[in-house]
Amino acid sequence: MSDTDGLGAMLEGLYPYRGTYASHARVPAGPLDRAAVLDEITRMAKDEDAQGDRGTVSGSLYSGDHEHYAFLGEVFSVFSHANVLQRDMYPSATKFEGEIIAMTSNLLHGTGIGVVTSGGSESLITALYAYREQAVAERGVTRPNVVLPITAHVALHKGAHWMGIEIRRAPLTDDYTADVDAMADMIDDQTVALVGSAGDYGHGLIDPIERIAALAQERGIGMHVDGCLGGWLLPWVERLGYDIPLWDFRVPGVTSISADTHKYGYALKGSSVLLYRDAELRRRQYFTSPDWPGGLYLSPGFAGSRSNGILASTWAAMLVTGESGYLAAAEKIMRTARAIRDGIRAIPELEVIGDPTFLVAFKAAADLDIYLVNDSLVAQGWRMNSLQLPPALHFCVTRPNTADGVAERFLGALRTAVDYAKLHRGEPAGTGAMYGFGGTPQGDATINMLMSTVLDAMHGLAPGAGAD
Ligand SMILES: Cc1ncc(COP(=O)(O)O)c(C=O)c1O
C-alpha cells in the first residue's frame, strides 16, 4: 500500500456513515421527528461504544459505567442550558465550581485556589499564559521560554506556539523521566516556568518533581505539574500503599497543577481543574474590561459562555463516586496494570518502558517492528496508543479494562501479535505508516501537510454528501 493509498483509506475511514444515514448540508426545511433523531444518535453511540465496553481500549473511557454516565447525563440536562457567566441567574455555578476546586485541591494538598477549565489542554495552556504574564509583569521578560522534558504534553507546545513562547525540550534519563540537569542548563533569565508530569501521556511516568521544583525555587521561577492524567488517580494509589514519589503541593516549589476531572475523576468530557498555590498567580489569567460598550466584563480564563451542566455533572461525579469509590477503582486499575506490566516483562521480545504505575508503555527488541505488533492487536480488536521516538505502544489502564479476564486476554493477544510481527518482519506496518517520516525538515513538512489534510477532512461533509 502506498502512502497516498494509506491517506486515502484514512480519509475514507472518517465517514463510516456515508450511505447509512442521511447527510445534512443545510438545515432541514421542517423539524425532524425528535424520536427519530434520538434513535439515530443512540444507534451511532451503541455501535461506537461497543469496543470500549469490551474493555479492549487503552485510556479514553475512564469510567465505562453506563449507569454512571446516564446519571451524569441526567444531571447535565438539568443545567445544560444555563450559562455560567450569568451568576445572578445561576448562583449554583459558584457552588459547583468552588466545591470542585476545593475537592481537587484537598486531594492534592493545595491551598484551595484554582479554576475549572474545559480539559487538560486548556488547563496547560492557561497555566503557561499565567506564567508568561507573571514573568512579563514582574521581570520584564520579552522573549519568554518554558523548559520542559520532551515527554511533556504537546498541548504545551500548542499553547507556546499560539502565545509566542519558546519551548526548550530537555532529554530524558535512562529511566525515561526528565533529565533535571539538562533542564537546569536550559534555564535563562527569559524562562517563565518549568514543567514536569505526573504521569506523562506517553509513558505514564512521574518526573522527578521534587528535583524540578527545587530547581525552580532556586532560580526564582514557577513550576507546573501536569497531573492531567494522573492527578485524579495517583492520590488514591498512594493511599492504597503503593510507593508513589511526592509530586503534588506537598512539594515546595510546585506552584500549579492541572488535574483532569474528565479522566480519572470519572466526570463527563469537558472538565479539568487548574490549581495554583497562590491567588496572585491565578489573577494573572483573569481578564477584566471596564470600558467596553457591552458593559463591564470579567472572565477567569479563555472561555466565554460555559454550560452549568458541565459544572453540575462534574461536581455530581465526585459526590456519587466518593473516596471509597475512587479507592476501589484505583485498586482494580493498579492490579490490572501490574498484571499487564508483569506479563509484558515476561515476553522476551518486548521491553516495558520505565517503572510504570497505571499506564504501561512498551517497545520491541531491536529487530522487531512494534507497529507490526500493533497491526495484529488491531486485527484482534485491541486499541492501544501508538508512540514514537522511540517507537512504542501504551496501555493506559482504566476501569473498563479491570473486568475479569481482560488483562489475561490482552496478554494472549500480545503474544500472538509478537509472533505475527516476527513472521512479517521487514514488511511495512499499516498502523505505523506515518511514523519514521518525522525528524527531518522534509519529512516533518510532509507529515504536517498530511495531518492538515486530515483535519480539513474532519471538518467537512463526506465526499459526495449534500450535493443535492
Ligand atoms: C498528561 C496529559 N496532559 C494533558 C493532556 C491533554 O488533555 P485533554 O485531552 O483533556 O486536553 C493529556 C491527555 O491525555 C495528558 O495525558
- Average pLDDT works out at 95
- Write down the CATH class of the largest domain: Alpha Beta
Distance between the termini: 34 Å
CATH superfamily of the largest domain: Type I PLP-dependent aspartate aminotransferase-like (Major domain)
**Share of residues in strands:** 5-15%
Ligand roster = pyridoxal-5'-phosphate
Domain module tally: 2
Helix fraction, binned, reads: 40-55%
Whole-number radius of gyration? Answer: 23 Å
Spatial ordering of strands, largest sheet: 1-7-6-5-4-2-3
Low-confidence stretches: none
Shape: globular
Given helix and strand content, the structural type is: alpha/beta
The CATH topology of the largest domain turns out to be: Aspartate Aminotransferase, domain 2
Please summarize the sheet with the most strands.
Answer: 7 strands, mixed
Overall strand count: 13
Looking at the overall shape, the CATH architecture of the largest domain is 3-Layer(aba) Sandwich
Series of H and E elements: HHHHEHEHEHEHEHEEHEEHEEHEEHH
* Helix segment tally: 14
Explain this structure to me?
The chain has 468 residues and is an alpha/beta fold. It has 2 domains: 75-318, Aspartate Aminotransferase, domain 2 (3-Layer(aba) Sandwich); 322-423, Aspartate Aminotransferase, domain 1. Helices cover 43% and strands 13% of the residues. It has 14 helices and 13 strands. The protein has helices at 3-12, 34-53, 66-79, 92-107, 120-139, 155-163, 180-186, 209-219, 234-239, 279-283, 308-345, 370-379, 406-423, 441-458; strands at 113-117, 145-149, 166-170, 191-197, 222-226, 256-259, 272-276, 287-289, 297-299, 350-352, 359-364, 385-387, 392-396. The protein has a 7-stranded mixed beta sheet, sandwiched between helices. The protein has a 4-stranded antiparallel beta sheet with strand order 10-11-13-12. It has a two-stranded antiparallel sheet with strand order 8-9. A hairpin with a 7-residue loop joins strand 8 (287-289) and strand 9. Helix 4 (92-107) packs parallel to helix 11 (308-345), helix 5 (120-139) packs across helix 6 and helix 11 (308-345) packs across helix 13 (406-423). It is globular and about 65 Å long. The relative contact order is 0.14. The model has no long low-confidence stretch (mean pLDDT 95).
